[in-house]
Amino acid sequence: NAGVMQNPRHLVRRRGQEARLRCSPMKGHSHVYWYRQLPEEGLKFMVYLQKENIIDESGMPKERFSAEFPKEGPSILRIQQVVRGDSAAYFCASSPQDVNGYTFGSGTRLTVV
Amino acid sequence: EDQVTQSPEALRLQEGESSSLNCSYTVSGLRGLFWYRQDPGKGPEFLFTLYSAGEEKEKERLKATLTKKESFLHITAPKPEDSATYLCAVQGRGGSNYKLTFGKGTLLTVNP
Predict the structure, then answer these.
(1) Beta bridge partners of B97
(2) Which of A54, B18, B87, B99 has its C-alpha lying 20 to 30 A from B65's C-alpha?
């Protein structure tokens, strides 16, 4: 039973490019959460999605960031026109329903050069 | 707003030297307090969930306890493989009860 799968593990983008981070939740999980971990900071909530719905995107910057969880396929976190401050580790987590706690993936480490 | 503060930021122990990590929290109605372990380059790995004051949970050399204001992660006779960053997080009962609020973690190093 595979865990939460994130790819790519590492992503390097030049300033102004787009970054696409993918997350496949655990089998049977319909709730997906994205968190960001900046250097020397704790994990911060970004967005909560269910299939085809954004439930809460209050932790996501208003501009350049978007997320989706389509009916088929992985959840995607998209960052347009990346800047150096976007460099961070982005973690996806999933749960089968609105349960206490969830399972994290190994993360995507984004470096903007 | 929920808040979590972990101390110390870093802790060095000799193998076999027991100690405790602290997690102080404020939350509007606790739904759950979570401990995770994070190794370099990896995602957080779930350790424990505690739900109410007085609750304790154990796993191998680790024991987590909970009061109304803080949680402790006790490490008994640690081994080098226990070296990792330990993260504490809370989940409240408010409108956004799916969110985890994390502390910055305690980096534990166990020397052989």
Answers:
(1) none
(2) B99
CA distance A88 to A100: 26
Express each pLDDT in A81-111 by its tens digit.
999 999 999 999 999 876 667 899 999 999 9
Q: Say which CATH number the domain at B91 has.
A: 2.60.40.10
Contacts of B49 in chain A (CB under 8 A): 100-101
Query: How many structural domains compose chain B?
Result: 1
pLDDT, tens digit, 9 for 90 and up, residues A10-67? 999 999 999 999 999 998 888 999 999 998 888 999 999 998 899 999 999 999 999 9
Cross-chain residue pair A42–B103, CB shorter than 8 Å: yes
Q: Which of A111, A97, A90, A112 is nearest to A23 (CA)?
A: A90
Exposure letters A63-98 (e unless 16+ CB within 10 A, then b): eebebbbeeeebbbbebeebeeebbbbbbbbbbeee
Q: Are A41 and B6 in contact (CB under 8 A)?
A: no
Contact A42 B104 (CB under 8 A): yes
Domain that holds residue B75: 3-111
Give residue for tokens 């402790």: B72
